[in-house]
Amino acid sequence: MKLKLTNLILMISLLSAPVPVTAQGDTPAQEAFEGAVVCAPDVYLIAPDDCLPIGPSVYLTNLAHLGFTLPIRPLPAVRTDPALAILPYQYFHVSNDIALKFYPSLPDAQAKSENAIVYSPGFVYISYTGSDDTGHFFLSKSGYWIRGDGSRIHAFPSFQGLQFRETPRNAFGWTSSYEQTPIKISPGYGAPNSGKTLAPYSVVQVFYSYMADGVVWNMIGPDQWVEGRKVSAVTPNPAPPAGVNGTRWIEVNLEEQTLAVYDNNQLLFATVIATGMEPFWTRPGLHQIFQKKETETMRNNDPSDFYYLEDVPYTMYFDGPRALHAAYWRTAFGFTQSHGCVNLSVGDAHWLFLWAQEGDWVYVHDPSGLTPTDPALYTGGAY
How wide is the angle at C-alpha 325 spanned by C-alphas 141 and 178, nearest 5°? Predict the structure, then answer.
């Protein structure tokens, strides 16, 4: 997504920059070529003395300057353990247009008794421990019964990020979480399609970025380009942000909707997230984790924006009510949608919770500069 400042000359010479050809005998350079040995096709970052690195060598060398090797070097990473996404909780989603009612007993719930604690309709998920024989009434962990006006969560999104053995040499990212991403053979909407697409959450390496048609395009391979807005990218930077003392920190990139973890000044983990949408932005700045809670109940009693979320797992508060936490209700990541918190998949939040310590730095930034920083805008609750 973010444009890397690189000059146009490199772009033009990227794929197969030709060696200028002139009439025989026109220039001393041409005379120098006569009788010379052509180098074997290879990468020549320094011009050799005993052969001419022309033809395919030019192509390979230009790719090498961008970080390419052929075949392309895989990322030094593995997916995290799928078992991290297993939770010991069951959740029920109460319909958004129905008032939340907590009944003290099953008969009260069955009879729709007036003997109930009532909340406004809103965004509500209940953690339950059991149900009646009909499966229409649920016993919440708090000991109250609710009516089954809604739906159970049967599975959580399976997406999980990457754990790294070392810091990669170039940027990388994940394609859009909700649609196929087409690959073009050059940057720009008018460029020919390659006929190939990338499935949601495909991992790609970003070797070069170029502005065309007013948007950034990412080069993910030879003659392979995708629109930058379709990729949530991480540009590794193992140098600590200003103000961070120590070698551990979490970087939250609001423009890219990514999170990166650095330990011992090396990239250790990265993933796609969901941060606050207007007017519930996630506040840019340098923060520290001040409290970790394995589960949390998050609630806002304002009837115009009521929410009630039980057993939110792996919660790490870093900026007042704003926290890093699992969002079991999310079906996709990579775009703003929260009330200010940094939402992660269950597996990613679990991994981060096991790694993080109270006092760890959380660096939140927006390279686009579009997220406001006025403290007066960051009041109230968050999830």
Answer: 105
- Please give the Cα distance from 305 to 299 (Å, whole number): 10
pLDDT by 10s per residue, the chain, length 383: 444 333 333 343 344 333 332 233 333 444 455 667 889 888 788 888 889 888 777 777 777 776 676 678 899 999 999 999 999 999 999 999 999 999 999 999 999 999 999 999 999 999 999 999 998 999 999 899 999 999 999 888 889 999 999 999 999 999 999 999 999 999 999 999 999 999 999 999 999 999 999 999 999 999 999 999 999 999 999 999 999 999 999 999 999 999 999 999 999 999 999 999 999 999 999 999 999 999 999 999 888 899 999 999 999 999 999 999 999 999 999 999 999 999 999 999 999 999 999 999 999 999 999 999 999 999 878 88
Residue 189, token pair as written in the block: 């909407």
Within 8-69, residue ranges assigned H as helices are 8-12, 28-33, 56-65
Query: What letter would DSSP give residue 49?
Result: S
Q: 């022309």: which residue's tokens?
A: 54
105-118 core/surface letters (b: 16 or more CB in 10 A; e: else): eeebbeeeeeebee
Token pair 């399976």 in the structure block, residue: 158
Cα separation, 348 vs 228, in Å, equals 24
CA dist 382 and 376 (Å) reads 15
Backbone angles phi, psi at 54, to 5 degrees: -115, 180
* 312, 383 contact by CB (below 8 A): yes
Compute the distance between CA of residue 274 and CA of residue 286 in angstroms, rounded to an integer: 18
Residue identified by tokens 């990239």 is 267
**Distance, first Cα to last Cα, the chain:** 26
Read off the pTM. 0.85
CA distance 178 to 11: 31
Bond into 279 cis (ω within 30)? yes
**346 φ/ψ angles, rounded to the nearest 5 degrees:** -60, -45
The C-alpha angle with vertex 382 and arms to 85 and 138, in degrees rounded to 5, equals 55
